[in-house]
Amino acid sequence: MPPGTGVIRLPQFAMRYLLSALSLTWLVTIGLPSAHAAPPTRLELQSGDHIAIVGNALADRMQHTGHFETLVVAKNPDRNLVVRNLAVAGDEVVRRHRSENFGSPDDWLTRVKADVILAFFGFNESFNGPDGLARFRTDLEQYIRHVRAQNYSGKGAPRLVLFSPIAAEKLKDPSIQDPAPLNTNLRLYTDAMAEVAQANDVQFVSLFEPSLSLFAEADDPLLRDGPN
To answer: What is the DSSP letter of 57?
Structure first.
């Protein structure tokens, strides 16, 4: 969230769906200032764009409401946008388990004619800790190069935006672990994503610090069962 905008008190059920959507809406309509300045800093949506969402549970659970599509279309009412969510909980940059003959990620991005790809990665990979950072950087760079070499829509290479994981919230439930070690790794992977994005001239939105601030300032928990 940009500085100076105040804290948005999100209903508990909406937190995980809306945090990324609010960040993207700001990115689309105004431009997102960030501590990780990865050029360019503004996503320009074009008339008729097909937006494909890929990645882990944060993106997957956005399918349960229409908040994201409502926000984006409301800010771009005349552009006839199409949004398709291809995310599945557990997905990583490289590992995406599917049923046999389901089709590859490229197959599905071609089916939905993706002009814009919003990629949510880094959370599942963060469980590999510092030892997994080098592999993650390599995988992410290869993913960026691969996607940019494709023409899913028939109109040219897609525009790619990378989104970091959100932070882990400290909850009062004693059965849920202290999130401090997890947040240490999440920060490492968020920083790695920012560096890779900047090195490859890819748009990047950090959701880690904004979510960490929201959690710290909220009177009541914003998540039900920890990070996703």
So the answer is: H
The span from the CA of 217 to the CA of 213, in Å, is 6
Among candidates 120, 215, 213, which has minimal Cα distance to 170?
A: 215
- Two tokens at 88? 């599945």
* HEC letters along 163-213: ECCCCCCCCCCCCCCCCHHHHHHHHHHHHHHHHHHHHCCCEEECCHHHHHH
pLDDT tens track for 121-171 = 999 999 999 999 999 999 999 999 999 999 999 999 999 999 999 888 877
Read off the pTM.
0.83
| Strand-pair partners of 83 | 51
Report the C-alpha gap between 184 and 167 in whole angstroms. 9
Q: Decide: 226 and 179 in contact? Cβ < 8 Å.
A: yes
Query: What are 205's two structure tokens?
Result: 């939105």
Cross-strand bridge partners of residue 99: none
88, 228 Cβ separation under 8 angstroms: no
Q: For residues 137 and 124, what is the distance between their CA atoms, to the nearest angstrom?
A: 14
Question: Taking a C-beta distance cutoff of 8 angstroms, is the pair 205, 32 a contact?
Answer: yes
* Residue written as token pair 């994005």: 197
Say how many Å lie between the first and final Cα of the chain, rounded.
19
d(CA 29, CA 137): 29
